[in-house]
Amino acid sequence: MIHRLLGVTGDTTAVVIGASIGGLLAARVLREHFGRVVVLDRDTLGAAPAHRRCVPQDHQLHVLLARGRTALEELFPGLSAQLRDAGAPMVDLHGQVHWYNDGYLMRRAPSDLVAAGVGRPLLEHTIRERVLALPGVRLVARTDVTGLVLSADGSAVTGVHLSTGGTLAADLVVDAGGRASRGPLWLSAAGFPVPAEERVQVDVTYVTRRYEYQPEHLDGMSGVLTNAVPGAPRSGIAATQEDGLVAVALNGMLGERPPTDDAGMAAFADSLAAPHLATIIRCAVPAGDPVTMRYPASVRRRYERLRRFPEGYLVVADALCSFNPIYGQGMTVAALEALLLRRLLNTSGGRTTGLARRFFRQAARIVDGPWSIAVGTDLRFAEVPGRRTLKVRFVNAFVHRLHRAATRDANLGAAFLRVLNLVAPPTSLLTPGTILRVVFGARGTISRPRTPAPVAAEPAVRA
């Protein structure tokens, strides 16, 4: 039996389904209150950073927002320095990045919004090593969870069924199985209601390729970003990472599919507002092949609205809400949920009675902000189905004017980036002072949006 293999006897045990970032962060917090924490994952997990078969998105460019980095630092003191020592650059998101919002180039300024330029495999590996170094934490790979074990009266989850044929008892089971979580199916099979789902169909395809970083390709900066706009559902981002590389991601919404050949990628980049992307593609030396991934829809599961839910079970991270990856919110929200779980367990002295109800209610408030940013922005596109309230239409029009004014007013750029990085709530953009800056700034002489044009550059010699 797996109990003997793990040495799980006596005391309290928490089981985490999934060893991706959301599951690892939950395990980190749970170890503060449980004698043992067992993390189960169906993948093979190596001793060094590597791409994972069951995490296909880890080939793509990931962005750890400024609030996400500070949240991880709360959970793992010294993590930023550890990533920096591993070669990941720390980037001032306002002072070291070219931002082309709606075609308008934001005025740069130094800021305290610092993000880590790190690939997903290195970040996940570093966190996993920190978690597994905690006494009482065990990771079991190549093991899938096939269902929940229920108490005799069916009111509580008391463990999990394993693909190996055994069961594992637990005082708390945390489902961090991602957007493919089978939680709703398990709840239905146990006679519990399933959460309502909100879906926003965006049909995003993104292609990421890494290149050898040359500062001149980014005018000495560490990144560049340009967003999609109605009528042109294409976007792109480049970000420096560890190993002296820069990752370029080309994104298409609503069926737009970036190509993967050199000429096609360059032509796609030429259609974007930021000229640096095409320069990198044409001039930099590739460090690997382009990788494509498709993301059909943002999905939010409304667990906080359920009237009945079993004790001893919790759902976190992407299993709770999966965001359009273009906005880079997923890892940061997972970290904020882990901090919430820590607060709730600290407050209750580690007791889990009623934990799910409290967690889901407060996690919904964490999700509300980034969900409104992602969905509200996606609803600018007429092809995206959804209800466009007066508030959504007003905010989108206002933010467009803010982008115009931010070409000259660095304070407006700072306000926008604080919201984008989940440091400040979206409502902070609607303070009287910010509104006045936008109204009067947008009336001034403002640079027009950049009209994309082909970048004249000599291509790099490619092997």
From TrEMBL:
Organism name? Dactylosporangium maewongense
Which PANTHER family does this entry report, sorted A to Z? THIAMINE THIAZOLE SYNTHASE
A molecular function annotated in GO for this UniProt entry is:
monooxygenase activity
Protein name (record): FAD-binding monooxygenase
State the UniProt keywords alphabetically: Monooxygenase, Oxidoreductase
